[in-house]
Amino acid sequence: MSTRLPPAWSKHLKVQPARHVEPPKARPVSAPTDDMLLRQALELQQAKRFPEAEELCHRVLARSPNHALALYILGTLGLGFDDELAISFLARAAASEPENPYYQLSLGEACLKVGDYPMAITHLQRACELKPGLIESLCSLAQAYAKCDKADMALAVYERALEINRDHSQARIGMASTLTDLGRMDDAAGVLRMAVAQRVGVAGAYRALVNIRKFSSEPPELQSIMGELGKPTNSADETKNLHQAAGKVLNDLGRYHEALDHFLKAKALADGKFDIDVYRARIDSLIELFNADFLASKAAFGSPSEVPVFVLGMPRSGTTLTEQICSSHPQVHGAGELTKLGRMAASIGLKLGAEQNFKRTAGSMTIQQSFALAEEYLSNLNLYSPKATRIVDKMPHNFELVGLIAVLFPNARIIHCRRDAIDNCLSCFFSNLSPGHSYSYDLATLGLAYREYDRLMRHWQAVLPGRIFENRYEDMVADQEGQSRRLIDHLGLIWDDACLRFYEKAGSVRTISRWQVRQPIYRSSVKRWKNYEGGIQPLIDALGDLAET
Fold first, then answer.
1. Under 8 Å CB-to-CB from 479, ≥6 apart: which residues?
2. Distance CA 62, CA 118 (A)
């Protein structure tokens, strides 16, 4: 996040540091003022000298503990490194100057980033009240509404943003995304085609447009995308989006060799690296800590609530389909991919790179602490549906936190979505997953990461016998009704035929699977990898015995 400042402070970004002049020895040197230190901190932040900028902010806070701008800069510096701490700084800045729309905006965007959507809405609404024409606040508020399954409210806010600036790419693409969430594919396509015609976020618009439907014949957009790829002025991100779009269309058309070439080029431009050795050590630590004896010793911990349902597994393994089937039941609400459990895990040290810390923290957890954590999660879950008998959290990577789930919620249902390993990995590779899934940027690394996921899930099944329902995608395709009935039975609910018509369910679908889950179950994704068999050997080699060829 860039630091947004009120107009009075914006000028400091352009001020060049004054040349040092040695003061006369007879005159005392006055200490730098808060304003001087923060101006330097802003310049250091712009120069990406973050530790030095942070040190200056702390110097200001040492003598002015509630200095709003110092707190605000610290908050923006911390995002991406320690999001929870960054949010605490931003919250203190907003409390110190509650009439400052920029502080409310940045706090709301930070809450949006970590997935605390209700809190994001609160602060973004306030930012819009304080400065109605601030288009960034409107776009972020609309996004937060969409994430909270309030798509109609999101559309209204995007309209307000476009009234201010019809060429605002974030508003235009956001509106199309929300229409797609609602299943209004034709309306979404119209918005995106208009964006392309008006040259508003062209690469992103094409990527979104081709993902709205499946192509059986070559669309005119393909040649247009190829033409855009030939332009030397494209940024790396624009080129990546265009390759992703071309790959999607060519895959639909069965031109697999060409499609793979574009997907490979797209991934080569993706920003992010994944250290498989660090991840392997992380999985080792989870298996070592959450052994059968440890879990048995925590049997009386947590909350007895049966409300939470955790749908987890690798991305693109059928988690969205599973949630949609479950939430078609009148007693079940699908809350989407919630970040709350992961944020709680991070707060107690259960995060990558902190193995000794989380072993110590989890090992010393008291029954009272476990209950408090469980209640914190349930309070957040209640914001999404206060009356539902079951609420589904379908964050795929919660597969890393099954041990914590078992401690906090001994009666919660856990559904593990599994799919043919090569199909699953290839779908990850073809998808535009978020930067947190950087293991998907390289075929060999993806296969190795899948092996670690598989190793961990086999451990959970061994130490928690009978707790985890294994929902294989191929089983669902082969016997939709039988597998769906088994799912609902696992939830402890009476069968409802609406679960067979999941694709008719009203409301929005907020993942990259949203086009697919609005269709009846189809078989074309089973053994899809065979179409690419000649070009994905690094993936097959990395998967080893998990690759069912």
1. none
2. 33
3-state class (DSSP) for residue 82:
coil
User: pLDDT digit string (tens) for 278-295?
Assistant: 999 999 999 999 999 999
Question: How many angstroms separate the CA atoms of 436 and 432, rounded?
Answer: 11
**Residues 303-333: tens digit of each pLDDT:** 999 999 999 999 999 999 999 999 999 999 9
**Coil, helix or strand for 414?**
strand
Higher pLDDT, 183 or 455: 455
Long-range contacts of 529-533 (CB under 8 A, 24+ apart): 529/420, 529/422, 529/423, 529/426, 531/254, 531/256, 532/256, 532/260, 532/426
**Calpha distance 188→180 (Å, rounded):** 6
Between CA 13 and CA 33 the distance in angstroms is 17
Task: State the Cα–Cα distance between residues 207 and 548, nearest whole angstrom.
Answer: 31
Residue in this structure with the two tokens 């288009």, named with its chain if needed: 135
CA dist., res. 1 & res. 77, Å (int):
8
- The structure tokens listed for 138 are 């409107």
Which residue bears the tokens 């409802």?
A: 496
Beta strands in 137-228 (DSSP E): none
SS3 504: helix
**Every domain of the chain and the residues it spans:** 276-296+305-546
Q: Please state, in angstroms and as integers, the Cα–Cα distance from residue 313 to each residue in 57, 175, 354, 393, 396, following that order.
A: 42, 30, 23, 12, 5
Question: Which two structure tokens, joined as six digits, stand for 402?
Answer: 């099954």
E strands in 232-369? 308-313, 332-334
Find residue 309's DSSP bridge partners: 392, 413
Distance CA 97, CA 321 (A): 45
> Using CB atoms within 10 A of its CB, is residue 486 exposed (0-12), middle (13-18) or buried (19+)?
middle
Architecture of the CATH domain 276-296+305-546:
3-Layer(aba) Sandwich (3.40)
Provide DSSP, 220-259.
HHHHHHHHHHT-TT--HHHHHHHHHHHHHHHHHTT-HHHH
CB-neighbour burial class of residue 213 (10 A; exposed 0-12, middle 13-18, buried 19+) = middle
